[in-house]
Amino acid sequence: MEKEPESPPPLARRRQHEQRITVAQDDWGLVEVGVTRGGELVEVAINTALVDHVRPVDLAEAMLQAARAAQHRASDLHGG
């Protein structure tokens, strides 16, 4: 009996389906996010060298700033 190939992880599947992921980061380089053409947040990366030196509220603000920037960029690129 043949073993079925493993399915790709969810992000890989989404990237296959979604041709373009738009990325942006906050002003401090703490967080980078990726969004789809429609603005859906699909990727988050946190700078581990900095994360231990910021307050949770600052991390949250950085996340929002990066997400807004990526969503605006995706909207501009895709005419939304």
What's the SSE blueprint?
Blueprint (H helix, E strand, L loop, with lengths): L9 H8 L4 E4 L5 E5 L5 E6 L1 H4 L4 H23 L2
Antiparallel strand pairs: 1-2, 2-3
What does this 3D model show about the protein?
By secondary structure, the chain is an alpha+beta fold. It contains 3 helices and 3 strands. The chain has helices at residues 10-17, 48-51, 56-78, and strands at 22-25, 31-35, 41-46. The chain has a 3-stranded antiparallel sheet. Strand 1 (22-25) and strand 2 form a beta hairpin. The longest helix has 23 residues, at 56-78. The model has no long low-confidence stretch (mean pLDDT 85).
Helix-strand sequence: HEEEHH
Sheet/helix structural class: alpha+beta
Most strands sheet: 3 strands, antiparallel
Poorly predicted parts: none
Shape: flat
User: What fraction strand?
Assistant: 15-25%
Q: How much helix is in the residues?
A: 40-55%
Gap between N and C termini: 49 Å
* Backbone CA Rg: 16 Å
Q: Work out the number of β strands.
A: 3
Brief digest:
The protein has 80 residues and is of the alpha+beta class. It has helices spanning 10-17, 48-51, 56-78, and strands at residues 22-25, 31-35, 41-46. It contains three helices and three strands, in the order αβββαα.
